[in-house]
Amino acid sequence: MDKDNIDIDKIQEFGKILRDGGTVIFPTETVYGLGADALDENAAKKIYEAKGRPSDNPLIVHIADKKEINKLATDIDERGYKVMDKFWPGPITIVFKKKDIVPAITSGNLDTVAVRMPSHPIALSLIKESGVCVAAPSANISGRPSPTDEDNVYEEMNTRVDGIILGGNSNVGLESTVLDLTGDIPMILRPGGVTLEELSEVLGEVMIDPAILEKNENIIARAPGMKYTHYAPNAEVFIVKKDDGDYVDKINKLVDEKLKEGKKVGIMCINKNKDKYKGEVIGLGDDLDGVAHNLFKTLREMDKKGVDIIYSEEFEKGGIGQAIMNRLTKAAGYKFV
Ligand code: TXA
Ligand code: MG
């Protein structure tokens, strides 16, 4: 479906599937989502089944109208309204105290609910026509990179849901920022499309959940999903630290060693370095937005090429770089060289 020329009859058909308790995959500006009626326990259960996802990992509830927030959440203060006004519709999810109407299966047994109003026209139209609040995690099998393009989402999930709307590539390419507003200081539980810098401008002091900044078995991530292995391709991923001077040489040396061992090696880099490397080289983008847009797709592409090892350049952590390095570090299982 063309997002600039929406087929409303088709959308209504898919909306009916959701209203009747079925599952529908749809595009959003961040990644593809696997939706079902968030307030219907049986429907929400189907999401966990389709993904093979642990049921203590709560779902994000998607709405098409800011007013719907009052149905789902309580204790919304000025900070909440500020963030919704400034960034919705868009790539940020807000965690509030939940109302009783949100079933435990949707909230992963927590007393909070995560809510997002996406900006993708197909997503908005589908939610609106369905007439329900739509719980939707990323539309991948649990642990795999989130799908951001039509081919990958169709291939992986086609037989697992009641409907799929294919609507081109996700623009952002990484999942939404998850912001917890239930504590004294706003806390980013998952970095994403809306950056720490942008949030600080609106809210003043904003923290990032310390658990996601380092690998430390003793700190438990506040977003349950962040504790699971995630985004992992079949190949082993290493991030090559940028601190040494001869950066390109360092990567090429590593690649040479592995090629000698008979391994198939993939390299992910900023576009301008593409011609400097040997092996299966994929340029992720010209800048950080490009890298975010292409990262998940490239991890999947590397699998298709059948590489044994992937070396990725390290990226700056400012702006969207925080989210990029968060996903990349998880895909690499925290392995740096
Ligand atoms: O961009 C996105 O957010 C996509 C699209 C489809 O909207 N959805 C998505 O959902 O990434 P999912 O389920 O893959 O990730 C949701 C994250 C998980 O890490 C989960 O643990 C966290 O949000 N989360 C959900 N509800 C929460 C809550 N009440 N408290 C803390 N973390 C929560
Ligand atoms: Mg996910």
What is the structure about, briefly put?
With 337 residues, this protein is α/β, with parallel strands linked by helices.
Word description of this protein:
This protein is an alpha/beta fold and 337 residues long. It has 2 domains: 8-212, Alpha-Beta Complex (DHBP synthase); 236-331, 3-Layer(aba) Sandwich (Rossmann fold). It is 33% helix and 18% strand. The chain contains 11 helices and 15 strands. It has helices at 8-19, 41-51, 69-72, 78-87, 104-107, 121-130, 150-157, 196-203, 247-260, 288-305, 321-331, and strands at 24-26, 33-37, 60-62, 73-74, 92-98, 112-116, 134-135, 163-164, 177-180, 187-190, 207-208, 236-240, 265-270, 280-285, 309-313. Strands 1, 2, 3, 4, 5, 6, 7, 8, 9, 10 and 11 form an 11-stranded mixed β-sheet that branches. Strands 12-15-13-14 form a 4-stranded parallel β-sheet, with helices on both faces. Helix 1 crosses helix 6 (121-130) and helix 10 runs parallel beside helix 11. The radius of gyration is 20 Å and the shape is globular. It starts with 7 loop residues before the first helix and ends in a 6-residue tail after the last helix. The mean pLDDT is 94. Bound molecules: threonylcarbamoyladenylate and magnesium ion. Magnesium ion binds next to loops. InterPro entries: DHBP_synth_RibB-like_a/b_dom, Sua5-like_dom, Sua5/YwlC_C, Sua5_C, T(6)A37_SUA5, TC-AMP_synthase_SUA5. Required for the formation of a threonylcarbamoyl group on adenosine at position 37 (t(6)A37) in tRNAs that read codons beginning with adenine. It catalyses: L-threonine + hydrogencarbonate + ATP = L-threonylcarbamoyladenylate + diphosphate + H2O.
